[in-house]
Design a protein that fits this description.
Layout (H helix, E strand, L loop, with lengths): L1 H16 L3 E3 L5 E3 L11 E5 L9 H14 L3 E5 L15 H10 L3 E2 L10 H10 L3
Parallel strand pairs: 3-4, 4-5
Antiparallel strand pairs: 1-2
Length: 131
Amino acid sequence: MYYKKCVLCLIVLITMFGCQAVPSETGHLVEIDLSEFNQFHLTVLHTNDWHGILHEVPMFATLVQEIRDETENVLLLDGGDLYRRGPFEEFRGAVEIAVMNAMGYDALVFGNNDFPITDEELFYVSEHTSE
């Protein structure tokens, strides 16, 4: 599963940056006709700015599961701002991380509202997010 996620992340990065040219042995860029390769479909689901607001999570979790049941190669990502300025801030992300683990998030990053983050909070997130 880890290998699959790494491959999917690599494909996302390649797609984002439109890499259709690579250096040749002479150092010049050579165009690659990507149509000769098998097509790969990737579905990326993204959230951000939860801020501990969890009232719509059941609906979103159901939608995510339906998409995963119908589609292969689904990445579920979060762009940060998990808990600060939210109703569960005192739990320092424990509630939101438990929900994200249950939903099977593939990756998350810290957002601007997650800073400043203490070493203790960083360790907690690192130790409690699924691999």
